[in-house]
Amino acid sequence: MVAFLLPVAVLASGLAAGGLVISVLGGAPLLLALPTDRYIPVHQFLVQRFDPFMPISMGLALLCDVALIFLAPAVLTQGMAAVSAVLLLLAMAVSIFKNVPINKWVATLRPDTVPDDWERLDPRVRWRNWNAVRTVFAVAALSVNVVAVGVLL
Asked: Tens digit of pLDDT for each residue in 71-106?
């Protein structure tokens, strides 16, 4: 079972980390550079594509890591699975409590009717900063999973 779970954990955490790295390197800088009337539809477009994918990737990696805590043959590997699971939980918590509320709010906006106090409400810097935090957690979880593969070899 470990021979199945660990590669799936690496794959799923790699997909999640990769998606987040793409958003750090390309998505966030693009969104920050756009004028408001273009930012809103582009953000809405991107969220529709990342939201179904990211929770599935992180959730699958988390489930595999939690199973490995109980099924891995070595205490070291079990500990690494636990660390990865905690890191994934932290990435998911940042997503749920910080980025998703911003995404939901932006989804309610219309580019032609921006709130009058947009300069105060503009969520782009906050979204970028929290996105960077969750990306660090996801990349760290992937790194721990990759090291666990090396430990088991």
From this structure: 998 999 999 999 999 999 999 999 999 999 999 999
Helix then strand then coil, % of the chain, to nearest 5: 90, 0, 10
Distance, in Å, from the CA atom of 103 to the CA atom of 140, rounded to the nearest integer, reads: 24
Three-class secondary structure assignment of 77-129: HHHHHHHHHHHHHHHHHHHHHHHHHHHHHHHCCCCCCCCCCHHHHCCHHHHHH
Query: Is the pLDDT assigned to residue 24 strictly greater than 90?
Result: yes
What are the structure tokens assigned to 109, written together?
A: 């906006």
Residue-range domain boundaries for the chain: 2-114+124-152
CB 81 within 8 A of CB 72: yes
Give residue for tokens 């990696």: 61
| pTM to 2 decimal places | 0.95
- How many Cα atoms within 13 Å fall on the side-chain side of residue 57? 21
